[in-house]
């Protein structure tokens, strides 16, 4: 028995994917845990539910995260953390950072809250719709730290 290998396996389980909350998917390239909640809530309540768990509604800030979530959640639809909260046509992530990347199905979007479609494209939906939602969650107890949203807060 090679205890070195066993040790490494235990280490990997303890400190990588296994340290994501149960039911979540680990995106190793970014050290992020994503969990699809299959209870249905409107956008506001979904936002609160993610925060209650120490997380945030999923921020899909680039094509790599898009591809990861598409791979894991194809064929489902759910809220992501992108909203035009003051109805000025500018969509911001749930951490108030600017949406530099987007994957909209329609241009321009018609509602104020973004959801994933089954194809992985996003549509802007009425925020009152009741849907599943995708959270980014902390990797382990008290391990969560948000990437700061540098220099791109709304200026009002
Ligand atoms: C995402 O997937 C598409 C289609 O497979 C690929 O063309 C693109 O390069 C990928 N983007 C990233 C950032 O990995
Ligand atoms: C985003 O900005 C709003 C007000 O514009 C504020 O209420 C909210 O707490 C901010 N959220 C974060 C995560 O900074
Ligand atoms: C979401 O539901 C809550 C609780 O019913 C309600 O207070 C809130 O106004 C709703 N938000 C939206 C955007 O519909």
TrEMBL record:
Residues 1-18 form the signal peptide. It comes from the Eukaryota. Residues 29-136 form the C-type lectin domain. SMART domains: CLECT. Keywords: Signal. InterPro entries: C-type_lectin-like (IPR001304), C-type_lectin-like/link_sf (IPR016186), Ca-Dep_Lectins_ImmuneDev (IPR050801), CTDL_fold (IPR016187). SUPFAM superfamilies: C-type lectin-like (SSF56436). It holds the Pfam family Lectin_C. PANTHER family: C-TYPE LECTIN DOMAIN-CONTAINING PROTEIN, LITHOSTATHINE. This is C-type lectin domain-containing protein.
